[in-house]
Amino acid sequence: MQKTQLGCGGIVLLAASMSPAVYADTEESSPWGGSACVYYSQNGHDKDDYRSVRSLNWCASATYQISEDYSGYLSGGGYRAYEDRTGDFFTNTVLGVSRSALFDFGETGKVKASLQFTLPTSETSRKEDLITASRIGLSITGKAAGFDLSIAPRYSKNFHQYKTTVNGKVLTEHVVSVVSSVGYGVGDAYLSGSFIGGTSWTYAGFRRDWTYVGKLSASYQFTDSFSGALSASNSGVYFDAERGTLGNIELFNERSATYTATLTYSF
């Protein structure tokens, strides 16, 4: 995943101008919604250590309920980096549509689908001459013994103007990944764990290593609009017999793990 650069202010203003308050005189609820968040992240290394990674991040999203089954969404954000190349940067902007339920199964099971396109607003995407990226995904959710369960396979295809960058690096064309998660709520508190695994192919057909990100999170709903969360995540490389990769799988490493504190406002 690559970070994308600044420009969520416009999204926040757009969503705020179309908040439910605008429709207070009508009986129907507003089809508009959204959220804005700010979060600080760092790893376990001291800030004076060359391995230290710290950043202040922000994000915003707007959603529109097109019909009972379909909704559209727009999201973006940015971050301020405190190490290496410091400064403020945008992240990529995403425009998509989702279907709430393709079909149901069992007592609580649902299958959802989404299609989204990337607008290359990040510096990295612009340097790689990314035109757009399309991603289709399914989400299978359900409940068991009070736990929320989900698994989401996804496929992405990048569309670059060129197949290589200026330095001759062959760019990524295809990406496949699977996101699985489990969560449990206690009152206004919610505990969750997630695991993302995937691999990618270059335009030359070369497959890269399987990589993963594992994350543990605890959140609390302070009010109907405000929530906060603390999380820790770790990443690494799978054992890949086909490519002879031994990898560095670690369930948790207190130094290299990323720690995040988030405050979210929803409307």
UniProtKB/TrEMBL annotation:
Keywords recorded for this protein, A-Z: Signal
Range of residues in the leader sequence: 1-24
The protein's name: Outer membrane receptor protein
